[in-house]
Amino acid sequence: MNERLTIIVVETDQARAAEIVEGLRLSGQHEIHVIVDDKGLAARIADCKPDIILIDISDPSRDVLEEIALAARPKEHPVAMFVDRSDAALTRAAIEAGVSAYVVDGLRADRIKPILDTAIARFNLFNRVRTELEATRAALEERKIIDRAKAILMKARGIDEEAAYALLRKTAMDQGKRIADIARQLVMAASLLR
Amino acid sequence: MSITRLTLGYVPLTDAAPLIIAHEMGFAGEEGLTLELRRLAAWSQARDLLGAGLIDAAQMLVPMPVAQSIGLGPDVPAFDLVMFLSQGGQAIVVNNHLAARMTDAGFRFDFSDAALAGQALFAASGGRLRIGVPFPFSTQVELIWLLLGASGFAVDGVQIVTVPPPRMADAMARSEVDAFCVGEPWASFAIERGLGAMLLPGIAIWASPPEKGLVMCRAFAEGRPEETGALMRVVWRACQWLDQPDNRGVAAEIISSERYLNLPPELAERGLTGRIFVNPQGRYRHCPGFISFGDGAANFPWKSLAAFFASRIAARNGRDPAEAARTAMACFRTDLYRRHLRPAGAPLPGASAKVEGTITRPRMVAAEQGQMILRPDAFFDGSVFDPPFPE
Predict the structure, then answer these.
(1) DSSP letters spanning B61-108
(2) Which of A158, B16, B244, B380 has a CB 3.0–4.6 Å from the CB of B114, allowing a cystine?
């Protein structure tokens, strides 16, 4: 049972694709193809004859895959999304991690499980890293916009930086909004008046 | 009354409005519900999250639970459609090349005559057409076959391909499709980008094409009747609110916000107010009733419509249409609709199935109490559909 499996990873984010492929390579000798967009998806799948397709559960291309799966002759290429009711925990873990797998008819569960386990682990890892990155980026961006808003206020009202910040904070409090939102509105309005 | 939190999945389209409005306009709170709306990017995602119990209910293409019920889909717990969320809201767009040929041949893009539009499309395309739809099981697929089937197109001349709605315009720009049928605002989006002309609204082909439904796992719908009933009443009231013409502009603003559709409100406004731009030159048509949410018992999940979709889907997928029709009728829960919406005052028809396609104008019929108005349900070619056993 050490035949190679052919696996397609559909993933537009190249960093994440690399992450998943690396994981799959560590888990066994497989033939892995990465598809980065849904152009000619059907033809590429027919070419590769994959045993398993891995794709983000929220990728819009999934609906295209559904059509391909529906039209496929069994044993030719993956026919249906993998939902194994005998291993509900695995299925749930996959869906929670955001992985969906399309599996060729007749492929045994013990061959699918290690692949899916690996994909789940990599998806979770990547999601965590991305969430952290996004939070950092958002914080940086907010700091920048608040700085610009402060500069606008200092210039327009002839006040110092501390007073400008106090004014932003008070306005935010009064309106029940975040300081960054007030700053964004101010910068936007100022750009219109310029 | 304790507060119950329910998580609902929706795909960002104009017809997600009932769920968004139920939350934003405070209808949910009146029934002691807090709704958490989860934006989804694919219909298969809605199905999978619902099947895994990660969401409690979903806005879903009406034919999806039908296809699931007849075994076309993954092995997930049984789904039920408890009410319709919208009727209409779809439009067919043809690319500029076809539009020019049709215009040259004297076609006026006036939305009124689907038979004429079908003939003009046949002449302009030579009977060969690649058409985008949002999902293999969708009302859009049926609208396409209803139109083309009666307009001279042969099955092997037509290629129907699934394209996610936000990518529909791109697919047309890249010449991957010649035409598409999609829910708003994605038809108007393509017109705005100058990619084609609007051929027909869905309602010109079929007067009341049910588009989206509220779908839940059967185990939830039957096992948690209080939450199910509360959710249905909340959504039904939102649908009633949405069908008051004065509210449509506000609805466009709300659903277009960054949290939901994240598009300019002017785009969603077109479908919601029925003021539709037909082509990039700014020619527009007034199309009252382009989309309906509650009028004329729009929410009642007629079992005959489950049979209609099931028999057509089965026939295309090598299954027995009659058996599929009988099976699918069980997942349209007119019983739950009656039980949970009776207290809210929803008009309830005497029967749960009807011969589809016989009503050409709003018709007064006997209701459980007094009388009610049924919306027109006619097909443009005058065909009718007889369900297996009308009650």
Answers:
(1) ETHHHHHHHTT-S-S---EEEEEEEEEE-EEEEEEHHHHHHHHHTT--
(2) B380
